[in-house]
Give the backbone structure.
Amino acid sequence: MQSRHEVQRSSAAGRAVRRRGRHLIEALRPPGVRPRQPVPLPDRRHPRLVGSPVFVISSQRSGSTLLRVLLNSHSSIRAPHELHLDALQVQLGTDYAGDIMGELGLGRTTLEHLLWDRVLAYELSRSGKDIIVDKTPSNALIWQRISSAWPDARYLFLLRHPGSVLESVLNRHHDAEPQAAVRQVADYVTGVEQARRNLSGLTLRYEDLTSEPERETRRICAYLGVSWEPGMLDYGRRQHGPFKPYFGDWSENIGSGRIQPSRPLPAPDDVPEPLRPTARAWGYLV
C-alpha cells in the first residue's frame, strides 16, 4: 500500500507527464491550426438582464467598425465602441471570499459573466434602444465563454479574406513583425471559423458589405427581427463615439462617414500558408 507521500509524488509525476504531452502537441501543431474547441454547457442557473445580446465574431481589421456604425444608425440597435468584456475580470480580495461566493454558487467565472451582463444592460438602458451589439474582435477568441454566459445570444460572423486582413494589419501597424502578424491573424480567423462551425448565426462578408451595403444590412435586420432603415447607410450623420485605438477602427476611411470600397483581393500566391486553410474554408481560395 502506497504512503500518502508516495501517492502525492505519483500524482505530481502524472500531472507533469500530461503537461509535457500538451506542450508536445502544441509544438507539433501546424502554424495557424488550433484544436477544435468544445462548446461549454450553457449557464442557465443565473438569469440575464440582457437575454439575447448580439455578438460580432470577426478578426481584427475585418470591417467590424463599419458594421458597428451601420447598425448603430438603426433606431432600435445600440452598437457601442468595443467593450473588451474579456478584460473585465473579478478579483477576490481575500482567501475566504472564494468560499463565501462558492456557497452562493458564484465562482469567479460566474461572477464575471454577471458583471459582463450588467455592463450590457447598463449600456442598453442608457441608449433607450432594444438590441445591443458588441463587436470586439477578441470575441473570436472567447466565443466559448460568450456562448456559455448567454445561451440565447445571437451572432454575426463577419468574414474578410485572411490575406486582406494581414495586409491591413501590416499597413496599420508599420512596426509589426510580419511573421508575428501572420500568427496573430491565423489565431483570430481560426477562432472565427471555429465559432461559425459550432454556433448558429448569420454569416457576412466584408467585401459584400462594402459593395452591396443595402442588401447586407437588410439581411442583418431580417435576422435580428427589425425593419430595415435607409438611414443605416448614412452613418456619417450620426455620432458613434470616439474612433481611437482599443475603441475600434480609427482610420480616415471610417472617419469619412461614407462606405468605402474594399481593396482588391490578394493573389493566391501572396497568401501565407498558415492563412490558407481558413481562406479555403471561406471560399476565397479554390
In short: The beta strands are 54-57, 77-78, 131-134, 154-159, 202-205.
